[in-house]
Automatic annotation (TrEMBL):
Catalytic residues identified in the record: 10, 13
Keyword Disulfide bond attributed: yes
Organism, scientific name: Thermoanaerobaculum aquaticum
Cystine connections: 10-13
Protein name per the record: Redox-active disulfide protein 2
Length: 79
């Protein structure tokens, strides 16, 4: 599973990345996690609101910081 956090690096984006990492750790999920900070790059991915979480090319959260529990539920359904 490839997970991308998209956002310019603001505190909300950093919180989202932390929550993604914590959710993966709690699920023992071996995922490749990346943080894309360049506007041009995440715009190409279809992201218009940040922070965004993209799983295997699909935007699953945008415009808000998801909780660890929410991410665990999402990741479990997508595995």
């Amino acid at each position: 599973m490839k997970i991308v956090v998209a956002g310019p690096g603001c505190p909300r984006c950093q919180a989202t990345e932390r929550n993604v990492m914590n959710a993966c750790a709690e699920l023992n999920l071996a995922a490749e996690v990346a943080h894309v900070t360049r506007v041009e790059e995440f715009a190409r991915m279809g992201v218009t609101l940040t922070p965004a979480v993209i799983v295997d090319g699909k935007i699953v959260v945008a415009g808000r910081v998801p909780t660890v529990d929410e991410l665990k539920t999402l990741f479990s359904k997508l595995c």
